[in-house]
Amino acid sequence: MTLKLTRNELAQYIDHTLLATDATNDDVAALYVEAAELGVYAICVSPNMLPVGGAWGSLDPDADEAAVAESAPKLATVVGFPSGKHHSNIKAVEAARAVTDGADELDMVIDIGMLKAGRPELVEQDIATVRRAAPAPTVLKVIIESAALTDDEIVQACEAAERAGADYVKTSTGFHKDGGATVEAVALMRKTVGDRLGVKASGGVRTYEDAMAMIEAGASRLGMSSGAAVLADAPAE
For the chain, which has fewer Cβ within 10 Å, the N-terminal or C-terminal residue? Predict the structure, then answer.
C-alpha cells in the first residue's frame, strides 16, 4: 500500500451505509448523527427511511439549522434493491419518490440477467428510465454486481450506464452470493469509464487497507457499513 489518506481526506470518499432489513428509524437517525460527526460524504439508507428529518437537532440544539444542513452529509438511497428484478417503470417511480423525500443520490441495481442474456441495450433502457425520472442534479449510481460478471460483461454494463446518463458505476449491493468489490473489478471499471464517471466500490470494504487499495485502483467513492472503524485506523494527519 503506497497511498495513505488522512482521516478527513478518507471521510470524503465514504457513503456511510445502513441497508439492514431490520433497521429502524432510530437506527437511521443515529447513523446520520454519526455520519455528521465523522465528516463522511453521505449516508445511504433504504428508501422507506427517507426523509431523514431533524437528526441534526440532536447534534447541537443551539446550532444554526441552515449552517448545519450546509455541512451535513448527503442523503443517498437505493432503487430496485437488491435484486434489480423490478420493472423499469417501478424503479422510476421509486426513484422519483426518493428524490421527493429528500434523496440527493440514487444507487440503482441493474437486472444482471439481462446482461448475461446478451441484452445490454435493455440494461441501458432500464438505467435511462430511472435517469429520466430523476434527472440532474440528482446523482445516479448504477450497481452492476461486478463479482457476478465476466470482464466483458463488466465493460458492457459500464458502457450502458454511461450511455444512459449515469454519474457513477458501482461494484455491488453487498447482498449478492458471489461477493462484493475487488481491486481488479474497480480497476477495470475505471479503465472503461475513464474520468467521465465516478466509480464506487462497495461490499467487503472493511479496513483502512481495503479502502486505500480500492482508491488506488480507481474508486472515487466507497460504500461501507464499517466507516467508523475504518476511519479510526486512518492517520489523523
Answer: C
Would you state the cell numbers that stand for residue 236, as one nine-digit string?
489523523
Where is average pLDDT lowest: 31-40, 90-99, 131-140? 31-40
Percentage of the chain modeled with pLDDT above 70: 92
pLDDT computed for residue 104 by the predictor: 97
Burial label, 68 (beta-carbon count in 10 A; 0-12, 13-18, 19+): middle
Q: Which of 111, 126, 167, 170 is catalytic?
A: 170
Q: Which of 108, 133, 103 is nearest to 43 (CA)?
A: 103
Task: Establish whether 107 is a catalytic residue.
Answer: yes
Residue 64 catalytic?
Answer: no
The mean pLDDT of 181-210, rounded to a whole number, is 97
Domain residue ranges in the chain: 7-232
Q: Give pLDDT, residue 59.
A: 47
Cell triple for residue 105? 443520490
Of 107, 111, 126, 210, catalytic: 107
Task: Decide if 4 is catalytic.
Answer: no
Q: Which of 15, 111, 167, 200 is catalytic?
A: 200
Task: Please tell me the predicted confidence (pLDDT) of residue 52.
Answer: 85
What residue has cell string 472503524?
A: 229
**139's torsion region: left (phi>0), alpha (psi -120 to 50) or beta?**
beta
3-state helix, strand, coil in the chain (%, to 5): 45, 15, 40
Provide CATH code, domain 7-232.
3.20.20.70
Alpha carbon of 40 to those of 37, 73, 189: distances in Å? 8, 6, 23
CA–CA separation, 18 vs 49, rounded Å?
10
Cα–Cα dist 184/43, whole Å: 26
